[in-house]
Amino acid sequence: MVKVVLINPQIPPNTGNIARTCAATGTELHLVGPLGFEISDRYLKRAGLDYWPYVQLQYHDCLDAFKVFQQDQGGRWVGFSAAGICSYVQFQFQDNDWLLFGSETAGLPPYVLDACQATVRIPMTQPGVRSLNLSVSAAVGLFEARRQLGYLA
User: Fold this and answer.
1) Blockwise average pLDDT, block size 10, the chain, 153 residues
2) Whether 72 contacts 120, CB under 8 Å
């Protein structure tokens, strides 16, 4: 099953909302530090409501620690970026993909994008809008991957 990875998230409610989506879909959530908040942050907990017991959460102190963990598991890094090579709906997701999302303020750093086996974008019509909310982007990407892989009933 695909996994969601947040690299250096900064805003607790976004991470809480993503955790809630992951809980609802049985998707692993990986947080890669440094984070812009404490895991115990009340806004994070509030956004995730009472679903935290259902979240398969993994925390990695840094990108290098995450790389070691991920390499043991296998799978591709699929980076979501406004500069992605193709639209997320044209991309063929695989069951063991890791869906990577960057911080709300900076997105994925260039060195992470370079390490991705694929980069995808969520098309937007209005050129003045730089990006979608992180929790919206994660949900859009996750549900498209799940749709393609036959996990939506």
Assistant:
1) 97 92 97 88 64 91 97 97 96 98 96 98 92 96 98 85
2) no
Please name each of the domains of the chain with its CATH number. 3-148 (3.40.1280.10)
Based on the number of CB atoms within 10 Å of its own CB, is 72 exposed (0-12), middle (13-18) or buried (19 or more)? exposed
What does residue 81 show for φ and ψ, rounded to 5 degrees? -155, 150
pTM, rounded to two decimals: 0.94
Residue type, 123: P
Dihedral of CA atoms 91, 66, 135, 120 in degrees, nearest 10, equals: -20
CB–CB of 121/81 below 8 Å?
yes
The span from the CA of 34 to the CA of 23, in Å, is 23
Nearest to 103 by CA among 33, 52, 48: 33
